[in-house]
Design brief:
With 160 residues, the chain is α+β, with helices and mostly antiparallel strands. Among the domains are: 36-96; 119-159. It has 4 helices and 4 strands, in the order αββββααα. A 4-stranded antiparallel sheet has the order 2-1-3-4, with no helix packed on it. Helix 2 (124-138) packs across helix 4 (150-159). Residues 112-117 have low confidence and may be disordered.
Length: 160
């Protein structure tokens, strides 16, 4: 009789533990609430050039597109906090050196000559650019030097 009671107690403990583990595993994960973060950007003269509030998603990520000119800036970020987290703020320096330009180049195989532009059907401006590059190459100027120097580009384009 005593061993029967022990077995019943053990079964009840196992059922309770299984229920607790199942509840912990199956309960929905705590989803973060969207949060608002205030962002202020000041230029080198102290003038505010951006003053926005960014709302984060449920993963805590937010996005702010900045269209800033070349220069030095100071960025203030303020999080006011909520019932779970204490507010915080930080100030960082930001330097914009130059605008990044993306270009797409399409390669046309020499086997597919029907799609290639020949010198005769290229637009005039394109022909001028290619002729200037070729002239610079003939003068021994490496392409990377030529393309990094607006003065050289202007000089050689004026020659053609």
């Amino acid at each position: 009789m005593e061993s029967k009671n022990i077995i019943i107690i053990l079964v009840v403990i196992i059922v309770i533990l299984a229920a607790a583990i199942g509840f912990m595993v199956l309960k929905p994960m705590h989803v973060k609430e969207p949060t608002k973060i205030k962002i202020t950007v000041k230029n080198s003269n102290g003038k505010i050039v951006v003053n926005k509030t960014v709302k984060t998603n449920d993963k805590g990520n937010g996005k702010l597109d900045l269209n800033l000119k070349k220069g030095k800036y100071e960025v203030d970020v303020i999080y006011g906090g909520n019932e779970n987290y204490t507010g915080n703020n930080t100030t960082q320096k930001l330097t914009i050196k130059e605008k990044v330009v993306e270009a797409t180049v399409e390669y046309v195989s020499s086997e597919d000559s029907s799609n290639q532009m020949s010198g005769s059907n290229m637009p005039e401006e394109t022909r001028k650019i290619y002729a200037a590059r070729q002239k610079a190459a003939d003068d021994g100027i490496p392409m990377y030097v030529y393309t990094k120097s607006p003065e050289l580009v202007e000089k050689y384009q004026a020659m053609v």
